[in-house]
Amino acid sequence: MQTLIENLVKLQAVELERIRLSQDMRALPGEIAGAEAALGAAERQSAEVSAALNREETLRTRLERETEGHRQKAARFRAQHNSVKTPEQAAAIEHEIAFATAEIGRLEDEELASLERTEEQEGALARARGQVEELAGALEKTRERTSARQKQHAEQLAALNAERDRVRLEIGPEWLARFDRLAAARGTGIARAENQQCTGCRMGLRPQIWNQLREGELLACDSCSRLLYWDPAMVATPKQPQPEMIPGTGQAVRKPGQAGG
Ligand SMILES: [Zn+2]
User: Fold this and answer.
1) What spacing in Å lies between the alpha carbon of 179 and ligand 1's midpoint?
2) From the CA of 205, how far away is ligand 1's center (Å)?
3) pLDDT tens digits, 51-86
4) Which is nearest to 11 in space by CA: 162, 227, 161, 167?
5) How many whole angstroms from 223 Cα to the centroid of ligand 1?
């Protein structure tokens, strides 16, 4: 019976590890996709800042062209001003000169504001490019790590499959069928009994069952049907509360429910 219990426990450990490894392997492409998405976002950000820089440059070229136009106009009006005949003509030309000068001032302010934006964007572009470089490196590392883990997992899975086949041969077909049915339905087929409870479903065990388990029997849980066993090696682990001592006697206080055993 003890060998059967050990083999079933071993089989369950192998099955759970196989499931864990398979889940981990399924998550690996997601990690690469996540790193690719982060890099893609940084690249788009960098491209946006770069496009904004180009737009500012185009804007300044236009502003400079317009400024130059107003300068030329103002120069022409100043030349005409010398040859006017009437005060009305002089006033009209002065008005044109004033307008051109105001426009030049406005366009120069606009150009200055554009230069300030460019300065900010250049900083942002440097940061965005740094980010792209960093995330490209991270993606490369994720790919390497993932590929190493895939290889490692495949090796571990092969070893676990071999171990599984070996252990299954040690277990009788009826027990195996029962274990497989339970494992398929509940995720696990065998559970340790601990503190008079099934660790699979946390339901309490009848004293009769608990006693039989402690004698080394393999029984079904009344509640979840998992196979139940008792592991003497698990007794008095640090997880269990220390018994209260009767002062001066070195003996533990006996509490209801702890009696016997
Ligand atoms: Zn149970």
Assistant:
1) 14
2) 9
3) 999 999 999 999 999 999 999 999 999 999 888 899
4) 167
5) 5
Burial of 153-190, coded b for 16+ CB within 10 Å and e otherwise, reads beebbeebeebbeebeeebeeebbebbeebbeeeebbb
- How many whole angstroms from 195 Cα to the centroid of ligand 1? 13
List the structure tokens of 27: 């998550």
What domains appear along the chain, each with residue ranges and CATH number?
Answer: 2-170 (1.10.287.1490), 172-261 (1.10.287.1490)
How many angstroms is it from 7 CA to the middle of ligand 1?
19
Phi, psi for 239 (deg, rounded to 5): -65, -30
Distance between Cα 37 and ligand 1 center (Å) = 44
CA distance 38 to 41: 5
The pLDDT of 204-226, averaged and rounded, is 96
CA of 10 to the centre of ligand 1 (A): 19
Gap between the terminal Cα atoms of the chain: 21
